[in-house]
Design brief:
The structure is a single chain. By secondary structure, this protein is an alpha/beta fold. It has one domain. It is 32% helix and 12% strand. It contains nine helices and six strands. Strands 1-2-4-3-5-6 form a six-stranded mixed sheet.
Length: 315
């Protein structure tokens, strides 16, 4: 990829260095890209960035959704995005933007890949930097091996990790389109608001968690399983395989769910807490029975060896 400074831009970029906000605290990233929550500025130790006060300023070298898909996302959108189109767009943005790296985190029952994109500023998305950020935040979550002074330094200097995972219910398709639009804004935006987000967040975007259900279309995956009830038990390969090498076993500092309200507007929702965990524990035996029944019906072997009780052994 070429350096960002070598790409044409849509608007002029006056000097206006953004200040870093507190990093590893839970920071909400709304799909509509509303302003960041306030925080205490912290020194980044990097040269000042150049940003624009014009919110519409973008890098011309990063392809818009319309340039790749043939139609815009959001206003004027003609139809929903297909799985193939979502994967194509992630690849196009990755090739054009130094702020983005992509990969595949899992495969569906029918073998479709679940691609992801990591987007942040150019310094953060280098492999060594991503590993350092993941290690720092992992240590921050474990008070047994992290002193109060180290935790305070990490919270001040490290960016927060935010997951935007969309389309867990295959028939609820708008989240994928919104996730791709979010990727474009973070990869191409030249405004100081986008610069602050990328300085303070490492955003992991998974456009669809249920590609088989998206194609069907239906709520469940190919095994007839509601993946939104599988976060704890992880009986389904789409859920259990959702790992990214640099962030393996590392949860988000902040998470987002989306749903449409009665008026059709896209709105955020809080992630499941203790109640959701208890509900998943309650249904765990039923989940396992349904999953193995579906695999046997399709002629599949269980993914893990089972003990005499029928419960999976190990991970």
């Amino acid at each position: 990829m070429t350096a960002a400074s070598a790409r044409p831009i849509v608007a002029s970029v006056p000097d206006g260095p953004p200040k870093r906000l507190a990093g590893a605290a839970a920071v909400a990233l709304l799909l509509g890209l509303t302003p960041l929550l306030g925080g205490t500025p912290a020194a980044s130790g990097a040269p000042p960035s150049r940003c624009s006060t014009d919110p519409s300023a973008r890098l011309g070298g990063v392809p818009t959704p319309k340039a790749v898909l043939g139609f815009p996302l959001g206003t004027g959108q003609e139809r929903v995005v297909t799985n193939d189109e979502a994967r194509t767009y992630l690849g196009a943005v990755d090739r054009a933007s130094d702020r983005v790296v992509t990969g595949v985190t899992a495969t569906s029952v029918l073998g479709q890949p679940l691609p992801y994109a990591v987007v942040s500023n150019e310094r953060h998305v280098r492999p060594s930097a991503l590993r350092k950020i993941a290690d720092d935040v992992r240590d921050l979550r474990d008070p047994r091996r992290t002193s109060a002074r180290t935790a305070a330094r990490t919270a001040k200097d490290s960016p927060a990790i935010v997951w935007v995972t969309a389309n867990v219910h295959g028939g609820e398709k708008s989240g994928t389109d919104a996730a791709l639009k979010t990727l474009y804004e973070l990869a191409a935006g030249l405004s100081c608001e986008v610069a602050r987000r990328n300085d303070n967040l490492v955003t992991i975007i998974v456009p669809t968690q249920n590609p088989d259900g998206r194609d069907a279309p239906r709520r469940q995956n190919e095994f007839g399983f509601d993946l939104n009830r599988d976060w704890f038990a992880r009986t389904q390969q789409e859920t259990d395989g959702k790992r990214i090498r640099e962030f393996d076993h590392l949860g988000p500092g902040s998470g987002l769910r989306e749903r449409r309200g009665p008026d059709g507007d896209l709105r955020g929702d809080r992630s499941y807490g203790l109640l959701g965990l208890l509900l998943q524990l309650h249904h765990l035996p039923q989940h396992r029975r349904l999953t193995e029944s579906a695999r046997q019906h399709r002629g599949c072997r269980p993914r893990r060896p089972a003990s005499a009780s029928g419960r999976p052994v190990g991970r």
